[in-house]
Amino acid sequence: MKPQETKFAFVYNEIKQCILEGQILPGSALPSSRMFCDQFHVSRYTINRVFDALREEGW
User: Among positive and negative, which fits the CA dihedral 6, 32, 17, 41?
Assistant: First the structure.
């Protein structure tokens, strides 16, 4: 994570990169928010905001 990067931006970029690289396939369910919480050490609120942002942008 870059020093000026927020946790939200970091997680958003990481999950988006997984989608772009084909690690998460279009139309498939995302892993659970709890799994991402453990992976990125953030709250479920942050993960849910990331999911909402990705959904709004069509990812």
Answer: positive
Query: Encoding tokens for residue 27?
Result: 């139309």
The tokens describing 35, both together, are 């799994």
Instruction: Check residue 25 and give its pLDDT.
Output: 87
What span, in angstroms and rounded, lies between the C-alpha atoms of 24 and 43?
21
The single-letter DSSP state of residue 55 is: H
> Within 10 Å of residue 36's Cβ, how many Cβ atoms?
21
H-run or E-run covering 26: none
The structure tokens 């369910």 sit at: 29
Per-residue pLDDT tens over the stretch 12-49: 999 999 999 999 987 888 889 999 999 999 999 999 99
> How far is Cα 24 from Cα 45, in angstroms, rounded to an integer?
21
